[in-house]
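F.,

This is the one I mentioned.
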């Protein structure tokens, strides 16, 4: 294994750890894309699944969100993973695939805990005006976890966002000298940090 292959493996392992453990350093990603008017937007998403071949990352989101609407118009996106306690910064750029039905979507919905499903029960779309922040949820769900049956109210608002990775940009931060590697498919190229 070359140094480049070792660095690529470390990046994949950090991503896989992020998808499997809530307290992992790469559990949260900053996703950059454009909104429906073409303006750049960034937001934080929870990493839900990682696949190496084909290279994909999976996130969950509300289908009513501006993020979803923007990605329907321009599917280009980039997810950035960095934590001050981790020596790597990993950026994954590619195309977003949005799923609001089908087998992958259904499997993701079934695997989502009721407390997470509660997010999709919100009365308004993310970013829509709200007079009282305490009233974003239906009254019966404001202070408790929904039952499985109650959580089904959010089913039609639940979306799966799959980022099909075209490029991985891995920056290894080191006081003796940073190293940066670009991975496109099986091709690896060192670049100036």
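My design for it:
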């Amino acid at each position: 294994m070359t140094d480049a292959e070792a660095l690529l493996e470390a990046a994949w392992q950090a991503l896989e750890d992020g998808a499997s453990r809530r307290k992992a350093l790469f559990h949260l990603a900053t996703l950059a894309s454009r909104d429906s008017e073409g303006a750049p937007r960034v937001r934080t998403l929870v990493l839900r699944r990682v696949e190496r071949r084909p290279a994909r990352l999976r996130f969950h989101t509300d289908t009513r969100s501006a993020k979803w609407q923007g990605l329907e118009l321009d599917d280009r996106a980039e997810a950035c993973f960095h934590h001050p306690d981790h020596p790597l910064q990993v950026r994954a750029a590619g195309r977003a695939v949005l799923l609001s039905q089908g087998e992958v979507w259904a499997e993701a919905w079934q695997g989502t805990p009721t407390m997470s499903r509660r997010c999709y029960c919100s009365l308004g779309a993310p970013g829509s005006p709200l007079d009282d922040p305490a009233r974003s949820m239906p009254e019966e769900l404001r202070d408790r976890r929904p039952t499985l049956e109650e959580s089904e109210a959010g089913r039609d608002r639940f979306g799966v966002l799959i980022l099909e990775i075209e490029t991985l940009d891995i920056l290894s931060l080191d006081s003796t000298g940073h190293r940066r590697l670009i991975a496109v498919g099986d091709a690896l190229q060192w670049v100036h940090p």
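The mean pLDDT is 95.

Talk soon.
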